[in-house]
Write a structure and sequence with these properties.
heterodimer, A: 262 residues, mainly alpha, 76% helix, globular, B: 430 residues, alpha/beta, Rossmann fold, Coagulation Factor XIII, Chain A, domain 1, six-stranded mixed sheet, 18 strands
Chain lengths: 262, 430
């Protein structure tokens, strides 16, 4: 395991090159190019703002205004998480020629995929912060916790991505299964609603979802300007490490079969 | 004593073939039926490589030959590290560059320049090293004008050239080549060969898989013949190639003799089968008062075979059976090449044998002292008929034989010949 991590670190140049390739290729041929990374979240935010201030007005009781911004605090990191997972279910078979024809460390591929989505997430942050400032949300010292929450999510996402990518080599229908599972997961995570809206006995169930604590971390830090629940986040970090370890372990066990199966 | 560049010990590769059911197996049904692990068990095992061991010394050029499916590419992939052996050991000393699939890591949307860098990094070079080699690569690939364009605009030849240029310019210690010298046009092919020769001169180790036996013969110091995953011959390339060629000939002979006996069976006359049925018409027809029961092709030792070397003796032997006493009869043969051109035809009547009488079983032999045909596949007609042409039994191109030749001359038949020159014209032996 340790050797694996070391070799992964050794390949950081390759990951970097591939991530930049991915990003370049993504916007090649489009007029706005890299600007899309800003425009996309901006448009999304505008759409949500319109919907939730003009059409559909949520109850104003619990300090959720502006609701669109609250939503966006969770939606941006969730997009990173869910598209990483979804793409990782196809990443190995899409790069079959690399795995079969070149001596290529397969674990680089899901990582590249998580990191390029991470870059999109980072590029969306200025928009988020601009709106936080615009709506005069209390941005304060608690922002120091923000990178920590991002790190927890990164580790968790990598773990799931490794697990899903290796398993989907053998089971192609994981992709479809995953798409539905992610929708369920989305609604089982306090993104479009605050945890306080959930009945007491269901809150326990939601507490088992690591994404719950990560999302609440973002909302506490960014939207409310409060100190995040660091105890819960620490446990979540440990869970993320376990997920990462298990994901990598399974990936490693299945690694030899990739060249023949993809 | 320098350590060898590549050592293989008892290399074995098993491919597992799963049952048909398994192939359409989905996660969902596996979970529902709870038989995930039972289904994952392989049904059948296919032995792609069976205890392959050899050593390639540093600076040696090593050829791997064999028919399709013999395990050559699997072997190369295992040495390259993309596949893992089921059992056995591979030790490679130094950096490998595998020219197995050219341009495998290219991304079509981004430019040639960026692809070169990324490909180089994939092959284990740093960005700095790539910068140093960049110009060489572009020049070698002859892509100076197009290097800023996205790869998807490249032609197949340009694509492969770029892949080849990168793989060969990363300065490997061990170069693996899988049947790819034929990329690009004539000029580029020659450049690749030159590059390979330069590698040899710089004492690099090269492993080549190829069907181009001529190239193996000229380039390699050693060669190995694989047959169904096993080494059947190893050593001097000439010897190995000869072994391979005789294997091929043997296989062809088997194929042709199977065809021959099938033909005999298919068109054999049985009491029930009406010989005037339509299917028969095209291939075999006649009244069968004289029947040609068997046709054999024999060499000078009387051994039945179907592959002859040009200039060899060939005997066509027919076993015939006359149902009654017949006084009007002619035996004939005809040889056609694969284009349908009649190469030779003759019969007993043309050659002034006046028929007297035939009855019962007999043998007719047509002996060709020198089979001076050029290389190719030939079809044989045999017939027994009346002088006016009314057929007793006509076999239309039912029998096939091949002629092999050491010379690639052209035409239909090779007259016995010799060259001679005046003293001011001189040649060297090739």
């Amino acid at each position: 395991m340790w050797a694996n991590l070391k070799s992964l670190f050794h390949y950081r140049a390759m990951i970097q090159a591939l991530v930049s390739r991915e990003l370049k290729a993504r916007y090649r041929g489009s007029v706005l190019g890299f600007l899309w990374s800003f425009v996309n979240p901006l448009l999304m935010l505008l759409v949500y703002t319109f919907v939730f201030t003009v059409i559909f007005k949520p109850p104003r009781s619990e300090g959720l205004t502006p609701y669109a911004l609250f939503l966006f605090c969770g939606l941006l990191p969730w997009t990173w998480f869910s598209s990483s997972l979804l793409e990782s279910s196809a990443v190995l078979s899409n790069n079959a020629n690399l795995i079969q024809k070149v001596l290529f460390p397969a674990d680089v591929l899901p990582c590249v995929n998580v990191f390029s989505n991470f870059v999109h997430f980072l590029l969306g942050l200025p928009i988020l912060f601009a709106f936080l400032v615009l709506y005069q949300r209390p941005l304060n010292i608690n922002l120091l916790f923000f990178p920590g929450v991002v790190l927890i999510q990164l580790v968790l996402t990598l773990g799931f991505a490794l697990f899903i990518s290796s398993l989907s080599v053998h089971f192609r229908d994981i992709r479809d299964l995953l798409a539905n599972l992610l929708t369920l997961w989305f609604f089982a995570t306090p993104i479009i609603y605050p945890l306080t809206m959930i009945p007491e006995n269901f809150r326990r169930v939601l507490a088992f979802n690591p994404m719950t604590h990560i999302m609440m971390g973002y909302q506490d830090i960014l939207f409310r300007g409060e100190l995040p629940h660091w105890k819960r986040l620490s446990v979540t970090f440990l869970v993320s490490l376990v997920v990462f370890y298990v994901g990598y372990f399974i990936f490693d066990r299945l690694r030899d079969s990739f060249a023949e199966e993809v | 004593m320098v350590a060898p560049a590549v050592i293989l010990e008892d290399l074995t590769k098993l491919y597992r073939r799963y049952s048909q059911k398994r192939r359409f197996q989905t996660m969902k049904s596996a979970l529902i039926r709870g038989d995930l692990f039972r289904q994952l068990r392989p049904e059948e095992i296919f032995l792609a490589l069976d205890k392959v061991s050899f050593t390639v010394e540093k600076g040696e050029t090593f050829g791997i030959i064999g028919s399709n499916g013999a395990g050559k590419s699997t072997l190369l992939k295992i040495i390259a590290g993309t596949l893992r052996a089921t059992y056995g050991k591979v030790v490679v000393d130094g950096r490998i560059s595998a020219l197995i699939e050219l341009g495998a890591g290219f991304h079509p949307e981004i430019s040639g320049r960026e692809n070169i860098y990324i490909n180089g990094i994939m092959l284990g070079l740093s960005k700095k090293e790539m910068q140093r080699r960049f110009d060489d690569i572009v020049r070698f690939a002859e892509l100076e004008e197009f290097i800023e364009h996205p790869i998807k605009t490249y032609s197949t030849g340009m694509y492969l050239r770029l892949g080849f240029a990168i793989a060969i310019n990363v300065d490997p210690d061990v170069l693996l080549i899988d049947e790819i010298i034929s990329v690009g046009d004539e000029a580029f092919g020659r450049k690749c060969l030159d590059k390979i020769k330069e590698f040899q001169w710089r004492n690099k180790t090269i492993l080549i898989v190829s069907h181009a036996l001529g190239m193996i013969k000229t380039l390699c110091d050693q060669a190995v013949l694989l047959k169904k995953g096993r080494i059947t011959q190893i050593g001097d390339p000439r010897m190995v190639i000869d072994a391979y060629l005789s294997d091929v000939a043997e296989k062809e002979e088997r194929e042709l003799s199977r065809l021959h006996s099938q033909t005999l069976e298919k068109y054999a006359l049985t009491d029930e089968a009406p010989f005037h049925a339509t299917g028969y018409r095209k291939k075999r027809w006649g009244s069968r008062n004289i029947e040609i029961r068997e046709v054999k092709l024999l060499d000078k030792n009387g051994k039945e075979k179907h592959i002859f070397t040009s200039g060899e003796l060939m005997e066509i032997r027919m076993t015939i059976y006359a149902r009654k006493k017949i006084k009007d009869f002619v035996f004939g043969i005809g040889i056609f090449n694969s284009g349908g051109v009649s190469c030779y035809g003759s019969n007993t009547y043309i050659e002034k044998f006046a028929p007297q009488e035939v009855s019962g079983e007999g043998m007719v032999s047509f002996k060709i002292k020198r089979l001076d045909l050029i290389e190719g596949t030939y079809f044989l007609d045999v017939a027994a008929h009346q002088i006016d042409g009314t057929p007793y039994d006509y076999h239309r191109q039912l029998y096939t034989f091949r002629v092999q030749s050491h010379i690639d001359d052209v035409g239909i038949f090779r007259p016995q010949h010799s060259w001679s020159f005046s003293p001011n014209i001189s040649f060297k032996k090739m």
